[in-house]
Every structure is written in C-alpha cells, then in structure tokens.
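seq/struct pair 1
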Amino acid sequence: MIKQLLYFAYGSNLLEQRLTNRVGKVTVYGTYVLQDYELYITPVGWADIRPKKDSTVEGVLYILTPFQFSILDRYEACYIKEYFTVNDILTGVYTYHPSLSTEFPNRLAAPEYIDCIISGAINFGLEDTAEKMIKYKEALLVRKKKSKRLKAK
C-alpha cells in the first residue's frame, strides 16, 4: 500500500501555507523542473500547465499522504490529476480540464491568487516563475484599470 506520494505544485499551492491550510502539515521534498511543459493562466483565471516542447515549469514537490491527496482532490475539482515519476516515486500533478468548469465564465485571475504564486515562487527560489507571474500581474492590473474606466463611462 502506498503511504506517501509526491505532489508537484506549480500554481497557488507553491505557497506552502496555502497548501498546509488545505490539507494539513506538508513536507517539502524539493524543487523540480518539469520538462516540455509551460505554465499559463487559463481563461477562467487559474494557473495550469500544458505540453510545450523545449519549455519548462518550475515547481515544488511536496510529500503527501493518500488522505491528503483526497482532500486536495476536492480543492482541485476542475483539474485532472495525472501522474509521473520522480526518482522512482509516484508523483501527482493537477492539470486544468475546461469541460469541468462550464459553470465558470471567462474571467481575469484575482491579483491575490497571483500573489500566492509569486510568494511561493520567491520562497523557493523559482525565479522564472516569479518573474513570469509578476509580469502577468502587472498586465492584469492594467487590464482591470482599463475595464473600470470603460464601465465608468
């Protein structure tokens, strides 16, 4: 029976406190770079990864119990859990599945959500992720400001 699994976090769960608040105390296994994938924000404002040759996604590997994974499954309900191995250890990663989120209209990511990703990335020294999300947040804030001005007219 599997007693522990690795979970590859690349989005808001990079922030260890956020993940701990969701599933209880977690242990960091280490950082990891997933090859041939890219990090992006979906049309509904959530972080996701998708295959892209010669790209990478920085993330953190956490050790979770099967029970913790079952709790996380409820938080990540609009994502599909996929598996790969790291050092011969089964590792789960959640990838977004658009057909599961038909109740969510297209929307911009919340700045606080992006802040979780940025803070987690900085805490773990994931410079590329932090830089990418800082740029995304800057563009997001400009779009929100323009949107407010248009609504005011």
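seq/struct pair 2
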Amino acid sequence: MDFAWTQRELELKSSLQQFIEKEIKPHMTGWYRDDEIPRQFFAKMADEGFLGYLESEGRWVEAPMLDQVIVSQAVAEVSPGIAVGVMAHAGLGLYALYRFGNEEQKVRYFLPGVKGQKISAFANTEPIAGSDVANIGLQARPVSGGYLLNGTK
C-alpha cells in the first residue's frame, strides 16, 4: 500500500500553508486579544475550499476526509482555538444541516454557512450532563403541530 501524498494532496497542503501564512498568522494576536475570529475569515476559508464541502455538478458534497484532516491538522498546528472554531462550524453545525436538514434549512442555513456567510453552532450542553452527549436528558415528543420538549438546555 502506498502511503505517499498524491499530487492533489500536495497541492492542497501547499495552498493551505500559503493561506495560513497570509490569512491566519498575521492576525492571530488581534483575534485572541479581541476574543473573536472574524466572519470574513470563514468566507476566505470557503473561497479556498477549506471548509470541508465542495460544489460538484451543481450540488454540495463533502470533501474527502483526508482533505478535511489535512486542513484541521495544519490550522491546529498554528492555533488549536481557530481550528476548533472551524471544525465546530463545518463538522458539527454544517454537517448536521448537510445530512439531516430539509431543503428550506439547507437553502437558509447550509448554503450561506458553506460559503462562510453565516457561522453555524451546535448546542449540546445541559445543566446536569454538560457536554456528555451520552447523558443528555432532553427528549422531544411529537405532538399536534410540532414537538414537545421535556428538559433543559
């Protein structure tokens, strides 16, 4: 089995490194000082195809997992905090919309998110369970006109 990088992967790593040098490293101090990753950063990541989704034949598909790992690792080497922000946006919030969102949700939230125009989030903490998703107690029960939520977020 050949474990060498393909030419495409080498090109991804090279363009990603250039992006990091230009769009992350010069701004990190200010971002940490201001406690904010600017929204424009996500749009720039999207423009370069670094958010984990690619447009193919008029629809959005997930980028290859190895590409996503290459991006996550390279950004985390420079700033774990920025990497977590990107991964939470793309891997949690956008992924849930990509896999389970209806067409209206995809148009309203996924498409702007995958283009970096909106930032997604994922709320899974509860007062007793924290972020331990195996112990989340909130339940949703179908009722006439929607769902009844029983629990606290």
